[in-house]
Structures are given as structure tokens and as C-alpha cells.
């Protein structure tokens, strides 16, 4: 089974609108972390936001917020007031504590977001 | 700039040649990770170091691949006898320690002809 599922291969959004990128995950580890990264065409993975499995509140970082629904195992990224520079690939990733110190990230297949002027 | 750096950014080689990539992590980050990303996919874990010790290698890392981090600072990833299937983006990431965010470099794009 896929550990990270991103069901939206591509999305087109009008500039200044809000957008939600979906991510569901699968783990039996009670302690885990969820990340979102942005990858522009240049290739670099840019860290956006982090949510720990024990965090009581949803994470927020500027225009980014993470809609964390633990029971549903979803961690959707919300970008408010989208900008042209938000056009990129977006990856959801998970870190599981059970990997005996190896904090490798498991990534989804990504969503390509295009902002339309 | 104190971010993760990788060199070269692009590499084109012929099948059968050896290639070596370098990663310089953020200063004082003791954990360093290598990932591989093929077209249309998310990055996949290859190997990781805590200081100079290589602690785990993925099954993706065949015996043609070797990684080192000799002084616990920069790391190298060498691919011997390259194959066309090795064509990918090779990403390096570093983190300060346990449960810290991984920060990625710009990657090295490898094309094997």
C-alpha cells in the first residue's frame, strides 16, 4: 500500500484564490511527522510546513496552513491568496519514528499546481 | 549562502562511465541524506549518514553505488559503470538532528546516454 497518496496530478487555480492540495497517508506508527515541500522547475525541494502527529493545533506558516485530520489520515495543504510564484510541484512527505533513527522521508507522487493570472 | 549545495548541477555521461557527485550540507548539520528522483515521481531514499557513519542503505542502492562522508561534513555519491536507468535527479538533504526538518540542495541531474 502507498504510504503517501496525492490524488491530484495537476491543478489550475486563478491567481488570488485559495487552493487545497490533498494528501492522505498510511502508517501504524503512533509518532510521525508530515511535511510539505515545493519543487519549482529548478529542481530544489523547498520546505514549506511541518505537522507532528501529537500536535494539537494545525500548523500554519504565512500563507500556508496544514489541515490535519488524524482520524482520516489526511494532511491537506492550504495556500491562501495564491500568487503566480506558487506555480510548482508540491510534495507531501512523511517521517516515521519507527525507522530506528533513520528519519528518511517517504514522498508522494506530487501535485503540479499552475496559477493562472 | 549557508544552504545545502550540490555539485555539479548537471552531468551528462556515457553508459559505462563512472560519475561522482558532491554534497555540502548546512554547517553543523550532523545528518545527511541522499535521495533519487525519477521523472514524475517523488524523491526516494537512498542512504543516510549520521556524522561520518553510514547507517542505512536502501535496496535501491545497488553495489555500483557508493557513498562516503569522510569527515562528517561533505558527502560524495559515486556511481560506477553507469546505466541508462541511473538517469535521475540526485538530491541531498541535511538536518540538525533527530526530529529536525530536512533541508534539500538544488540536486544533480544525471543523464546517461
Topology (SSEs and partners):
The complex is a heterodimer of chains A (117) and B (113).
Chain A: E1 4-5, E2 10-14, E3 19-21, E4 24-25, E5 32-39, E6 46-52, E7 60-61, E8 64-69, E9 74-79, E10 88-96, E11 105-107, E12 111-116
Parallel strand pairs in A: 2-12
Antiparallel strand pairs in A: 1-4, 3-9, 5-6, 5-10, 7-8, 8-9, 10-11, 10-12
Chain B: E1 5-7, E2 10-13, E3 19-24, E4 31-37, E5 44-50, E6 53-57, E7 65-68, E8 75-79, E9 88-95, E10 103-104, E11 108-112
Parallel strand pairs in B: 2-11
Antiparallel strand pairs in B: 1-3, 3-8, 4-5, 4-9, 5-6, 7-8, 9-10, 9-11
Can you characterise this structure?
- The complex is a heterodimer of chains A (117) and B (113).
- Chain A has strands at 4-5, 10-14, 19-21, 24-25, 32-39, 46-52, 60-61, 64-69, 74-79, 88-96, 105-107, 111-116.
- Chain A is mainly β and 117 residues long.
- In chain A, strands 2, 5, 6, 10, 11 and 12 form a 6-stranded mixed sheet that branches.
- In chain A, a hairpin with an 8-residue loop joins β10 and β11.
- The mean pLDDT of chain A is 93.
- Chain B is mostly beta strands and 113 residues long.
- In chain B, strands 2, 4, 5, 6, 9, 10 and 11 form a 7-stranded mixed sheet that branches.
- In chain B, 36% of the residues are buried.
- The mean pLDDT of chain B is 93.
- The chains are: A mainly beta (117), B mainly beta (113).
- Chain A binds chain B through residues 4, 33, 35, 37, 42-47, 50, 91, 93, 101-110, and chain B through 31, 33, 35, 40-45, 48, 50, 55-56, 89, 91, 93, 95, 98-99, 101-107, 109.
